[in-house]
Amino acid sequence: MTGQPCVDTAPLDDILARYVAAEPALIQVLQDVHRAYNYLPCEILVKVADALDVPLAKVFSVSTFYKAFSLTPRGEKVLRVCTGTA
């Protein structure tokens, strides 16, 4: 192990530069991170918590609460099938 991060943090730096480093920006930052990486890498969530001065538990809580966020990589296209009776 080289000690190098597994995920490129350059997109995160650009995202964080667009927001005030405070808790109210958390959801917007997570949305932009999800858009940039196509999921929320745990390593990036730690950096988001540090940058916004938000407890890591809160960042993970928000990340897992909203169905739009994924902590595992997703494919480029996400298919959803309605199994309703209509």
Question: Outline of this structure?
Answer:
It is built from four helices and no strands. The protein is globular and about 45 Å long.
Overview of this protein structure:
With 86 residues, this protein is an all-alpha fold. It has 4 helices and no strands. It is globular and about 45 Å long. The termini are far apart. The mean pLDDT is 88.
Shape: globular
How would you sum up the major sheet?
Answer: none
Please trace the helix and strand order, writing H or E for each element: HHHH
Proportion of helical residues: 40-55%
Helix/sheet category: mainly alpha
Distance between the termini: 53 Å
Quaternary: single chain
Strand count: 0
Low-confidence stretches: none
Rounded radius of gyration (Å) = 15 Å
**Percentage beta strand:** under 5%
What would the average pLDDT be, to the nearest integer?
88
- Helical stretch tally: 4
Keyword list:
86 residues, mainly alpha, globular
Q: Strands, helices and their partners?
A:
Elements: H1 10-17, H2 26-37, H3 42-52, H4 56-65
Helix pairs in contact: 1-2, 2-3, 3-4
